[in-house]
Amino acid sequence: MSLVTTTEMFKKAYDGGYAVGAFNVNNMEIVQGITEAAGELNSPVILQVSKGARAYANHTYLVKLVEAAVEENPQIPIALHLDHGDTFELCKSCIDGGFTSVMIDASSKSFEDNIALTKQVVEYAHAHGVVVEAELGTLAGIEDEVVVEAGKEAYTRPEEVEEFVDKTGCDSLAIAIGTSHGAYKFTAAQCTRNADGILVPPPLRFDVLEECIKRLPGFPIVLHGSSSVPQEFVKMVNQYGGNMPDAVGIPEEQLRQAAKLAVCKINIDSDIRLAMTGNIRKYFAEHPDHFDPRQYLKPARQAVKDMVAHKIKYVLGSDGKA
Ligand code: G3H
Ligand code: 13P
Ligand code: ZN
Hints:
Blueprint: H1 7-16, E1 20-24, H2 28-40, E2 45-50, H3 51-57, H4 59-72, E3 78-85, H5 88-96, E4 101-104, H6 111-127, E5 131-136, E6 141-143, E7 146-148, H7 158-168, E8 172-175, E9 192-193, E10 199-200, H8 206-215, E11 221-223, H9 231-239, H10 252-260, E12 263-268, H11 270-286, H12 293-316
Parallel strand pairs: 1-2, 1-12, 2-3, 3-4, 4-5, 5-8, 8-11, 11-12
Antiparallel strand pairs: 6-7, 9-10
Helix pairs in contact: 2-4, 2-12, 3-4, 5-6, 7-8, 9-11, 11-12
This protein binds glyceraldehyde-3-phosphate, 1,3-dihydroxyacetonephosphate (13P) and zinc ion (ZN).
1,3-dihydroxyacetonephosphate (13P) is lined by residues 24, 83-84, 181-182, 224-227, 267-271.
């Protein structure tokens, strides 16, 4: 199988009550960890590249790494997606450069300007066989240069979604229902604490999601900022010299619930970073004399693989759906 768009993936996910994981890739070990898990579990998967990833690893290297993963895992559908494209030119460059899906994120602009830019990208993308994800509403956290403070985010307004989708022709829509980017998704003031002193975040706004679904029946919804920030990794980071107090994510059961509804794509990046960092810190602490990158990148890659396998089975529900 060669790289695919998300059209067929989302149709099957919508009808089957599961979601496809969209994992951010920045280097070879991350691509391998994700696709080995998806390949072994026979799961569709989306590999997504941010503007920052392109700046770090170079467009061509990332495309070639993803092509290698496709060759190694011919039994599963893999899509290559631009995450948070912020200009027409960036989207065009990815469309021209082999991506099968792009996101144009004009969510920080006015409703009218968001429509105009999204429509421009859709016209170019569709003419080249590429699909487009758009966004309405803003998430808290950091997306490349755009920083939105917790508490300053804006939930998607369901009354706007039909007009937006009609006028832009986008293929999927990212909405804001309380997820947030990064490893610190909520301030302590927004949370309660459980018996172990771990922050418990406010629940996602399923009412907003349900209202969007009613207005866009059959249309694929996307959730950004959906890392769960597993406390085992946070503990590992902190135990081995790191300092990540009060890192908190989205509870897995809420993502599972969303995946059973119209949410067809769930974005995960921070959990990859935590899995790798926790394991590399542990490795360095336990092997202070080692200096071969293969020695510490191997457990890091395995941790990404195990984490992605867990998501596929217990959060996304996409195992066996290739
Ligand atoms: O939503 C943002 C993603 O986690 C990508 O992060 O822009 O640092 O590559 P990045
Ligand atoms: P996390 O920071 O929750 O992993 O979100 C990633 C994301 O939304 C990428 O677009
Ligand atoms: Zn995002």
